[in-house]
Amino acid sequence: MQIAKIAVEAATYAIDKPYSYGVPAGTDVSVGCRVLVPFGRGNRTSEGIVLSLEEGLPNGPLKALRLNLDGAPVISPREIKLAFWMRQRYFCTFYDAIRTVLPAAVWYRYQELWHLRGSTAFPELSGKEAAVCQLLLDGPKELSVLREAYGEGVVTTLRGLEKRGVVSHQTVGRRNVQDKTVQLVRLAIPPEDAAAWAQTRKKSAPRMYDAVQFLLQQGETAVHELSYFTGASRQTVTALEKRGVIELRTQETYRITEKIYHVKAESITLNEEQQQAYDAILQRVMAGSGGVTLLQGVTGSGKTLIYIRLAQELLAQGKSVMILVPEIALTPQMMARFTAYFGEKVALLHSGLRATERYDQWKRIRKGEASIVLGTRSAVFAPLENLGLIVMDEEQESSYESERAPCYHARDIARYRCGAEGCHLVLGSATPTVETAWHARNGDYHLTLLRQRYNRQQLPRVIMADMRQELRQGNMTAISQPLYEELRENLARGEQSILFLNRRGNSRMALCSQCGEVPTCPRCSVHLTYHSANGRLICHYCGHIAQPQAACPVCGNRFLRFSGAGTQKV
Description:
Shape: extended
Helix content: 25-40%
Distance between the termini: 77 Å
Strand order of the largest sheet: 14-15-13-16-17-12-18
Structural class: alpha/beta
Number of strands: 23
């Protein structure tokens, strides 16, 4: 007997483990396929993923899986191991991890349909039971419809009716995104014979003649294009197929928006410092033992050129590359540069894509049609084979960490994949995180520095203004004298200026000048910010609004001082 170890979606974290199910004779199932299984005391239908298959005799009675949802595995053994690692590290269920690894398009939406069995007479039924059966006379109804009509208690009523054989139910699943296919048509006979046959139908069947002539000129084409350009109807195409003149076939097609980037692939010439960094990283990549390199370079030092040169070398050796960026807004410029050098070998993955496009990009990667994946945080799960390099650009950005459970960090996933698949991780940044810098300086990570900007361009001039000195000189405003002078010169030249201040409102707090009492939010226990636009005290965490009081509620002092400067005051 074949026994399947299955991870069940309905299992909570406390009981999350592989469950054994019997595989019915004649059922074709593989590791990585999704199945429907009975789970729990009520044998409610739940989705599961097959983790392993083995032959043997069970120790006791086993429930049998009900249905195989996939013709082929949707998840590889490597991704199953990754999901188990995520479960242990992020304290989530196995299914939560799998839902993070796979795109949303591959999952199913389920409906529980209830219908009557047998006679339309309802003897010995209560009022509510009879009403439910009367509603089901119109045809099968989804559980949500029955709940809306009779409330949550209808589930108990349905279970009771099912035990007595009055009603039954079935679970129907539909995938979130379906594969798109196109029907192609081509000649089934030699061109000479097709041309001769078409001449005999030129007057009696002009649409057939036009269709054959179009195929003689264009070759294989889509049926809808043939109909558009020749006016041939579906009946005409069917008639040609029956006569053996043409043949039809179905081909999968992608729903990927084609974008044209006006960036040319220029020859890359690395300067001495870049060449040293490239050689050092390439040597570690060729070692194939995993590892991490911190590529720390000042802004504009040309880190992207090193990424492109590494990708060129690895693709020439038949390996794949993953490039991660922190924000969706950064993908167009990075995509333009990589597409210029690698063309259709680049696949884009991020949450801003349509579900259909993201699914099709995932399929391209899975089939090996794309060797370079460019994307944001979620692209770290891309099913690349023979992975040679993962690059995390601007690794210090907090957007690499997911805020929804499981709260994974893309850097942790990348490090795991590098260790498991023998590839190398490059963390690029001008200002690395504290933990990354600490690992690099303690020898856990390799450290490669780029101290100069590309073509030795100068860094922007930075002026530090000491606001304590400004106070001593009598300047009580938030604008220092050097800033005032620079702004005035910019205005005189007709140029623009940007002032960045990470404080909203007019003043950071309202303060009693006598006892030091500060109004706080009753829910968040933080100081309320004073907004001069509406004369209100506002909590920026929960939105609580309060009216400034005329006197201090503690000491009765009528003089309140507003401390700090926000954007309204500046």
